[in-house]
Prior knowledge:
Blueprint: E1 14-17, H1 20-29, E2 36-40, E3 45-51, H2 54-69
Antiparallel strand pairs: 1-3, 2-3
Amino acid sequence: MYVVNPDSISENKKFYCKSKNLKKFLCELKKIPYVSKYYDEEIKRMVWIFIKTKELSDALYEWKQNKINGIRAIQ
């Protein structure tokens, strides 16, 4: 599902991803689709918006643990 107007999603249900590697991990390895994206002029990079779910939370925990343990999930 892609959302054209991400403002229609309540703020507490959104996760903003500003990392290309994390986005790749979530989308390609974990098969969690983002629902919208935009280019942030202030930070000069793309930002992907994901809906907060248990699946996303588990994937973010795995990502964090991989970073702590020095495991590269994405090449």
